[in-house]
Each structure stands twice: as C-alpha cells, then as structure tokens.
Design goal:
Blueprint: E1 7-8, E2 15-16, H1 20-29, H2 35-38, H3 46-50, E3 55-56, H4 58-72, H5 77-85, H6 92-98, H7 103-112, H8 114-117, E4 121-127, E5 131-138, H9 146-165, E6 172-174, H10 183-190, E7 202-206, H11 219-236, E8 240-241, H12 242-252, H13 260-266, H14 271-280, H15 285-302, H16 308-314, H17 320-331, H18 335-344
Parallel strand pairs: 1-8
Antiparallel strand pairs: 2-3, 4-5, 5-7, 6-7
C-alpha cells in the first residue's frame, strides 16, 4: 500500500500571514509590543503581513508564538488568542463554520479543513452513545508551544460554540499536563470542570448538543462555503500534515507489526528519509507508534468497555503484564487507575 504525499511539513509555507498570524500580531500590538520584536527570527516584517501576500510555515508561526509569549509574559495570552481564532477570517472555511447548521456540521468542517482552520494542532472527533470527544494532535512539532496551543484551541472551540449556539455548552476539558499556577484562567475561559494530569488532551460534551439547531444558520451558503474550502485545499495539494498522515496509517494498521521500514515504504520514502523528516518535527517513530497505541487503548477502555486482557489482545500483546507496563509508560497510569479515573469523571 502506498499513500499519496498529500501533506504539509513544518517548513511548508502555506499559512497566509493575514490569517492566524495576524490575529496573534494584533493581540500583541494592542498591548504595546513592537512589531519588529514580535517578528524577530521569523524572516518577516509587519509590512509583509499587511500586504496580504505573505505565507508562513508552521515553524515561522511557532516562532511568532514563542516571541509573543516572551514579550507579553501574561497568563491570559493563549486564552485571548483562542477567543479570536474561530470562526476567524480564513476564507470559505471560516464562512462554513459561521453558517453551520449545528455543532455536528461545524465539527465536520473543523476536522475536514483543519489545514486551513487549525494548521498546528489537528482536531480529531470520536463519538459514543453518550458523548462526543474531541482530542488534539500535534501536527508540526510544537515543542514548548504545545501547551499554549492547547489552551488557545480549546478556548476557540468553547467560545465559537457559545456564540453560534446562542448559549454556553457544558464542555469538559482534560489536559495531560500538570495544573499550572494560573489555573484561574482555565476556569474563566473553559469552565470549572477542567482536569489536569489526564491521559489525553481531550474535550467532552454530551452528544445531545450535536444536532441542536443553531439560530443563525445559513444552510445553502454554509454548504457552498464548505465546498469552496475543500477546493482551496485541493489547490494547495494537501489536507493535513505529515504527522497526521503517519498517525492515520498507524491507526489503520495498529494490529499489525509496524516497523519503521514498512511505514516508510507505505509513505513512499526510504527509512532514512522518514527518520530525517520525523527528527525535523521533533518526535521519534517509536513515540508516534506509542501515541497511536495509547489512543486505541483509551478508546477501547472508554468507549468499548474492554477489559485488560481484551485490550492487550487487540493490540497484539501476548503478555498482559507487558501490556500493563507499556500502558503505564504511555499514560502514567496503570489500567486499574485509569478505570477509577473514568468512573470518577462519569
């Protein structure tokens, strides 16, 4: 099996400077930060952004985020950035979000057109009988900026759904990092049901909110905008990042032996090229494989209700003890601790 090379990488210059980068620039400029200091190291000037012609790579946007965090040195920066992110002013994809009939259609657009709407973090949607779960994957090697991006991304979805639904939705947010000293910002922007030290960076909402009609929907215009957004992605030649494509392949073949050589062949490159590309994005192959296995295990526990032996067998572990050891390495929790955590969170 050979997959098409329809992905972007951390140095692919495709993000319009007057989209997400401009949102962050304006936030910092409004607080009195000099534009030259904000863009230092990015290879860009403010005039480039104002021209409407500049295209940034994920690396350049991450540089801008790092500069903004350092120069503002404010606990609320990521949350204020997130409040301004969605629906945004990113062409047809933003119009499709703003005119969505309900949360289901909005999430469909967000996930399908994530290269336009959320190029640094990839949203993934999972449903069970009671809840929808949205989790976030690093698309480009965010490194030290990952926590900032998670805070901004979760805030953007909470704020957008509140505006378009005409009411606050009871989102529950879980984060894998420890509780920060500025936890009150989480309570203000994401609600008081935030959890830290969780196995996964995750947003959860009762499924009943998926199909509640939104008051200002424009169905025909929204569908047309969604198709225009897809055409824009086709013109770019990709809909996701390299790490997204790798993750998809690993998930699809998670019950099979997955050595780097086989995966490289499926991605139509040599093993040395795949290693080099992964190093450019920070993670090693084993980290990506462990992440996919962790996500499948959590899905089997949470959604399918599997026990230890069933999950271990599904993931092709011959020894349950070895699986427990691996699971604790992936999540920081033993399977028994995970079950208690899931019971405590409902």
């Amino acid at each position: 099996m050979t997959l098409p090379t329809d992905w972007y990488e951390c140095d692919s210059r495709f993000i319009p400077g007057h989209w997400q980068p401009a949102v962050l620039l304006d936030l910092a400029l409004a607080r009195g930060v000099d534009s030259h200091r904000l863009l230092r190291g990015s290879g860009l000037f403010h005039e480039d952004i104002l021209s409407g012609q500049a295209r940034l790579s994920p690396q350049q946007l991450l540089c801008l985020i790092a500069n903004t965090r350092r120069l503002l040195d404010a606990d609320d920066s990521s949350f204020l950035f997130g409040q301004r992110l969605l629906p945004g002013h990113y062409g047809p994809a933003s119009h499709a979000l703003q005119q969505a009939a309900d949360l289901c259609q909005a999430l469909d657009v967000l996930c399908e057109q994530r290269a336009l709407l959320s190029p640094l973090l990839s949203p993934r949607l999972v449903l069970d009988e009671q809840y929808l779960y949205l989790y976030w994957l690093d698309s480009c090697g965010a490194g030290a900026q990952r926590c900032f991006l998670l805070e901004a991304s979760c805030t953007s979805l909470v704020a957008m759904s509140r505006w378009l639904a005409g009411q606050a939705l009871p989102w529950q947010c879980s984060f894998s990092h420890a509780q920060p000293r500025y936890v009150e910002q989480y309570w203000v922007h994401l609600g008081e049901t935030v959890r830290f030290g969780a196995p996964l960076d995750l947003m959860r909402l009762p499924r009943e909110y998926l199909h509640q009609p939104w008051p200002n929907a424009a169905l025909t215009a929204g569908r047309a905008a969604q198709q225009q957004g897809l055409a824009q992605l086709d013109s770019l030649g990709f809909r996701a990042g390299l790490l997204d494509r790798l993750y998809d392949f690993l998930l699809a073949h998670i019950r099979e032996p997955l050595q780097l050589e086989r995966v490289a062949h499926a991605l139509d490159m040599s093993p040395s090229t795949l290693k080099r590309k992964l190093q450019k994005h920070d993670p090693h192959f084993q980290e990506q494989l462990d992440q996919a296995r962790k996500h499948v295990a959590l899905y089997l526990y949470q959604v399918r209700g599997y026990g230890n032996e069933e999950v271990a067998a599904y993931l092709q572990f011959n020894d349950t003890t070895n699986f427990r050891r691996s699971f604790k390495r992936w999540t920081g929790l033993a399977p028994s601790e995970l079950r208690r955590s899931l019971s405590a969170s409902g």
